[in-house]
Amino acid sequence: MKEVEELLAIAGELPAEFEQAVTRLLNAVEALSSDKKALADEVERLKKQLEKKKKTKTTDGANPDSKDEGKQSEKPDSDHSSEEQRKKRKKPGTKPASDRRTFKDLTVHQTVECPVDPESLPPDAVRIDDESVIIQDIEIQPKNTRFQLHVYYSAAEGKFYRGSLPNGYGNSDFAPDLRALIVSLKYCGNMSEAKIREFLENFDVQVSTGSVSNILTHTAETFEQDYHDVLMAGLASTTYQQTDDTSARVAGQAWHTHILCNPFYTVYSTRPSKDRLAVLAVLQNTDELRFRFNEETRRLLRETLVIPAKWQESIAALGEDVVFDAKALKTLLDGWFGERNQQTRTAIEQAAAIVYYRGQTNVPVVQTLVCDDAGQFKLLTDRLALCWIHAGRHYERLNPVVPRHAELLNSFTERYWDYYASLQDYRAGPSVELASHLRLEFDKLFSTRTGYVTLDERIALTASKKEELLTVLTVPEVPLHNNASELGARVSARRRDVSLHSRSVRGARSMDIFTTLVQTCKKVGVSAFEYLRDRLHGRSDSPSLAQYIQAAAQTANASP
């Protein structure tokens, strides 16, 4: 390709017909090269899959995990991160968001005098101001308590009367502090249940792996209300929410962990699917969706989730404003379709569920959703804000073999990230004039035609998502990327590395609850261990996490 470019440079300007022919040939080379790479990647994936089967002596081609695992084992040939390009566009002199060398004020638990040996002092030595040196330490030791329950018996009533254990000590052989520590080791330290047991045995705590598991699953029930309150406060704390999902394994089955977050909280919800109905269930924290049929439902089924006129008439015959629960709707649709017309059935379910969600008042309705371009996130909210970094990755993945195409790609990506930096500046100081200017700049940038067909097709695809990419011009507080939810998904991925999967739905629910509480504690600056300990003792001395979220949101909104 380099030699071809050199020959073309020597030839100078070519007639228009020749230039067009050369351009088409170079694009054909790119297409063939891309196909070749895709085939090579697929061969490599299949080789790895085959090697894995040989190692595990598995010859069953119907292994349900093989396809997914093969995909997960793939490694990209190059780094598609755009971090370097974006960092170049940060203004010089800006301070980092935090300084890792800055420590919080430390609580001093004891003071120890360190005298000087009098015999080592000269005769004229005089004591002046002491110097203080604070050394951090921690003490872990067993603390077993014997509770003597006073017992009385009434012969007249035939009844025993016993003294009560303190709050938090009932129904368990382990005290609240120990249970809080076990939960913290799991969800703050990302330790496996076996390693938690091994750690505790070093301090003479007699606990089985089964007991550790029971503590983790049963203790979660105490925090169900906290989980719901965190979601409610989080949804009300900003005008937008961010969402993403990641794979999960529950009782050997493929499930999905949904992440919903903003700067003040992160909620995790693991469910069997990741379709629109699952996302709506996450937004409402429910397993029992409700469905509304009215004019808005019919409009969706007429204009967006288009279904045949016959079924539109059947829906119109239901009435002007009818609400079904999941069981009643299933009965209705089973009567209409049986096992047929799954696509039409799904469209009806989704349209009715969306309309119910938008009109309900049990939870705050999300106005703007920040996400990637996955289909399940569309139609749920008034506005959708797509992630610019996700969009930029498509350009980073292009790998042209023709030198002139590589130059065209580099030139365009420079302009792309310059425009991204302009949008960041707009968020810091929004104005109507600047918004209008940026809309024009968007049209100019994404109407670019380079002659490199693959790049031009990608530019056209980005241009088609103008409204979703420029939501920030209408709602300046909306972030330009979805990194927050991706970081939340990474927490689940690291947990999966350690624990692989949840053995039961109950275990998955406890993981969602505690991961939500721990990650939210991080965001609002609260010790997760102290929060869990306080709640397990039944004291509630500290504010709830929902109150912390509300306070953090009020402080952020009050800031200039």
Molecular structure report:
It is a single chain. The protein has 22 helices and nine strands. It has about 550 residues and is α/β, with parallel strands linked by helices. The protein has helices at about 1-10, 15-55, 65-70, 85-90, 175-185, 195-200, 210-220, 225-235, 275-285, 295-305, 310-315, 325-335, 340-360, 390-395, 405-430, 430-445, 455-465, 465-470, 485-500, 505-525, 530-535, 545-560; strands at about 150-155, 160, 240-250, 255-260, 265-270, 290-295, 320-325, 370, 385. The two termini are about 55 Å apart. The protein has a five-stranded mixed sheet. Strands 1-2 form a two-stranded antiparallel sheet. The chain is about 50% helix and about 10% strand. The protein has a domain at about 270-380. The chain is globular and about 105 Å long.
How would the blueprint of this fold be written?
Blueprint: H1 2-11, H2 16-55, H3 66-72, H4 83-88, E1 151-154, E2 159-162, H5 176-187, H6 193-201, H7 209-219, H8 224-237, E3 240-250, E4 253-262, E5 265-271, H9 276-284, E6 290-293, H10 295-303, H11 309-316, E7 322-325, H12 326-337, H13 342-359, E8 368-371, E9 383-386, H14 388-396, H15 403-428, H16 432-445, H17 453-463, H18 466-469, H19 483-499, H20 505-524, H21 528-536, H22 545-558
Parallel strand pairs: 3-8, 8-9
Antiparallel strand pairs: 1-2, 3-4, 4-5, 6-7
Helix pairs in contact: 2-3, 5-7, 5-21, 7-20, 8-20, 8-22, 9-13, 10-11, 10-13, 14-15, 15-16, 20-22
